[in-house]
């Protein structure tokens, strides 16, 4: 297998809005990240991925971009950004940016042109269709609830938006759109970025007949665009014309993609993406996110092992338990009360020793927990607010029931401000934070964790260091042991004559485990 920096590295994901505010307006910004560069360096990570900081009306916190080449004023300026990338590079850390090109903001100049008339040169940058009588062109639903089509009076047609109506989908079948995307990627690569996290990249190619979809809550129609007809062709084109010309890496966000399907994206000889984020393990405790079901360890193990076996030797995995779209893992699969420390460390271990590039989401390294907001007005996320409305109105679920769902699954659980210390607002801002700080910041914060040798933070640092010292952690083969065990997740890694065995327990009670006799040990 090809050896490269992005396989050997560890990624730290920053959600800029909630990381560190430098000017007291309550919103995290680029200068805030610059203030914390030494913290990031000390953690030992090699790559930083920052969520979108481009110009945006912020309907979906920056995933609705109105200018791909500039920084949103609330985050700072292009000069600040240059200082940030230099600061990272000086410390030997690479920078990965979000590439959000399935859709733009409805305030992007292309869309403003596109909606003007049917013969506007930008009309075909987006997906416009006539309605069926008074109805939308088909029954597809938006990921953020409701129809995926919005009627526009000016030309009397509908445009497609798989997310909010402020996020119209680009028409990738138009070669001009693909050229624009290439130019955007090139622009940032020429400014020095080291790679991209490609937002919802497996839904860029839609079935151009736009047939009705099979009814499924929240995702009706998805079989007509998930890993759609030309997606691989378009990615190969992007890779050939842009990515392959730079020493960069790409990680694709690919919803509803199986491990076998993933090989088409990440097999090294296909030249598409370096790795992808799959969602299989994120559905272990729910169906389509909002229908919760009990967590079953055996199911999680089966999923993770399948990915390990399928990708090994052919492509590369990404390893993650948290990001800005998921609740906090220690609240989700661990115990965020009595065993917060133990379960956060256990989950880190379980993930870190698998084959793939580990991603740590800001705050995960100090065991930040879900927000447990008690009032709907505390939520900011468009998806969460929409789902609340739908649940109440159409599913007739009680207020309490919906609030429970949000407490468990809302994206805002991961978006509360980073907890730096025990001062007001956890040291995140001197102003009023755009979203409330988690109440537990007096106990859970970076300053405390730095002092305590037994902290989750110091444990993460050890894991990162170990991974650098032992090649087996990066490149070793994976083999699961005791797949039917209900409480333990045990696996081994093998490289040449070395063996590494990882034993993690998901139980609150002691579990008996006898080490297999045929194992030989080296002290470490
Ligand atoms: C991705 C992002 C998410 C965003 C969506 C639309 O899933 O991670 O935050 O809302 O794409 O761009
Ligand atoms: Ca600010």
Explain what you see:
This protein has 524 residues and is an alpha/beta fold. It has four domains: 9-93 and 322-371 and 415-469, TIM Barrel; 109-160, Oligo-1,6-glucosidase, domain 2, CATH 3.90.400.10; 175-316, no CATH class; 476-524, no CATH class. It has helices at 5-8, 30-35, 37-43, 78-90, 109-114, 175-190, 231-241, 259-266, 297-311, 329-332, 340-352, 382-393, 399-409, 446-451, 456-469, 471-475, and strands at 11-14, 47-50, 54-55, 67-71, 94-99, 128-129, 149-152, 157-160, 195-198, 249-253, 275-277, 286-287, 291-292, 318-319, 357-361, 477-481, 488-495, 498-505. The strands form five sheets. The chain has an eight-stranded parallel beta sheet with strand order 11-10-9-5-2-1-15-14. Strands 6-8-7 form a three-stranded antiparallel beta sheet, with no helix packed on it. Strand 12 (286-287) and strand 13 form a beta hairpin. Helix 8 packs parallel to helix 9 (297-311). The longest helix is centred in the middle third of the chain and has 16 residues, at 175-190. Bound molecules: alpha-D-glucopyranose (GLC) and calcium ion (CA).
